[in-house]
Protein: 3-oxoacyl-[acyl-carrier-protein] synthase
Amino acid sequence: MLGSRVRADFPFLEHPPLLILSIFFTAMRRVVVTGLGAVTPLGVGIRRSWKRLLDGQCGVVNVNHRDKRFAEQPCQIAAVVPQGSRDDGGWMASEWLSRNDERKMALFAQYAMAATEEALQDAGWKPTEFEQREVTGVCLGSGIGNFEEIYNTAVAYENGGYKKVNPLFVPKLLINLGAGHISMKYGFMGPNHAATTACTTGAHSIGDAARFIACGDADVMVAGGAESCIHPLAIGGFARARSLATDFNDNPEKASRPFDADRKGFVVGEGAAVLILEELEHARARGAHIYAELRGYGCSSDAHHMTAPKENGEGAFMAMKKALKQAQLPPSAVDYVNAHATSTVVGDAAENAAIKTLLLGAEGKQKPSDVNVSSTKGAVGHLLGGAGAVEAVFSVLAIQDNIIPPTINLDRLANGFECNYAAKHAQPRQIDVVLTNSFGFGGTNSSLCFARHTK
Structure:
């Protein structure tokens, strides 16, 4: 009898999992962005990269000079981090790392270390107290990681045997060592996590890091992605899969052309980006500058094909829809979509279809031209595991500066592309809510929703 009365008065007790979920989501803590850092093909440092992006500049170059084996390949271009001094926006490892650290780290991890240093400086967060370091974690991944080390060691082993294997081979090979080196340098003892989900890695790393904070596992997280695999074998593999632009070797700056009717494939890029994510009250208590709030994180799977999305963009649609659901925002609230759009024929069309399905209609925009979309991959190429992190940084800055970064090389739209794609030039707009998308081989999809933080 008593059990019946309790169930009558408190019907949710008949569904204890629903009660647990209700309590869990009610207790979720809010997550904000307090620091940014990046190493990109547009330069070392987020402010330089952002300015050059808005100016319509491009980091794609011919790479024949790097290795004679590129000459035999159909694709001889890549988006590479420029070499040079830090003051000139170039990369010189010795300006960021000791010689011993440089020797121990793969290049993708070196880029991640530089992006982290900039982001921590930007956030004003370099704790020395045990209690603060204990609640600070790292979530940083890579899609491919140290490809060149694998290749060189395999060749050395084949030619010279066991003694030719570098003792640092395995530590330099492991993708989680990017996060590991960051935690060791700064003494961060919170969650130490590395996602590797192909080209969705950067977005997954940021979303997972946000959940660590939301669930109380950390107060601050270093979150992002890094990649460096500009190697003839890696690019040759993508070319054999018919994924790359191969018609622009003599005109590399025009190769990556998202949404354009003459797009032919993506351009491999390298670099790293890091966001400092922080629990809202923690950030407020120390007077940190808040760039934006990470309101939503959605994930899905196409369950369809190894490399190609569904043509209707169903997986992308589900990821974006889930991100908005967690953010508790309607489609009409989205001011800008930073698209994954890599410049492939099928991929760009599928994402475009998904964006229109989500953002047009009774709860969304009234006409396609009201939907603001752009892809920054025309300027920086496709950073694979680092792409989602770089684009998250650009999305946050779009909110801060109220501007849509341009889609360069967009000369002619194909049928079905009816939105506003910020072709060739940045567009000033009121930007309060941004969705940024990342999709990867294997059908994995993720979308992050950033929103302007209001007190």
Summary: The longest strand covers residues 31-40. The chain has one domain: 31-451.
